[in-house]
Amino acid sequence: MSSSSSSIVFDDIFTINAIDKEGKKFDRVSRLYARSKNYDMDMTLDYNTELFPLAEGQHFAVALASSLTRDGCASAGADGASAEDKDRDVWRPDGKGRRGLEEDYDYVMYGKVYKFDGGTAEIVTAYASFGGLLLSLTGSFRHMANIVLGDPVYILLRK
Question: At CA 150, angle to CA 81 and CA 154, rounded to 5?
Fold first, then answer.
């Protein structure tokens, strides 16, 4: 897992079991079903197939982060920080600002954790939405202790 000083709240390597097993509903979006190697987690994720093509049996790294900054501090809202300091930490399409976690990954989405199911005593499920593309992550509550209901979250994927 990740250290407490990092903005990464969950990371693991997943293997794709199936893609669109219930049929393809949209042209550029697929739903993958994957199992993690280290923590025995199950994940269902909607993703853009043109931006990040994947195949069954393929391995890929997944990280969930509260911020894209490498030092783990929130990118905005820090007390006493000037507007320049806040802007420097934010990802910007013009390439200005400090480089963050997005530089290490191939596909990044921003969203919100909208539901957290308790399930059994040990197994829980966290749900997040990334502009309508959905994530479901199921497994031991010990590995998802840093995922908080209502918090904004980034998902970062790398082949």
Answer: 65
The token duo for 11 is: 């990371």
Q: What pTM value is reported for the model?
A: 0.82
CA–CA separation, 152 and 115 (whole Å): 12
pLDDT score, position 51: 96
Which stretch of DSSP H or E encloses residue 59? strand 59-65
In angstroms, what CA-CA distances link 69 with 57, 66, 102, 111?
31, 9, 9, 16
For residue 61, with 0-12 CB atoms within 10 Å meaning exposed, 13-18 middle and 19 or more buried, which class applies?
middle
d(CA 43, CA 45): 6
User: Hey, how many other C-beta atoms are within 10 angstroms of the C-beta on 21?
Assistant: 10
Residue 86: DSSP 8-state: H
Percent of the chain residues topping a pLDDT of 70: 80
| DSSP 8-class letter at 77 | -
The two three-digit tokens of residue 17, written as one number: 């079991």
Q: Name the residue type at position 155.
A: I
Question: Which amino acid appears at position 127 of this protein?
Answer: Y
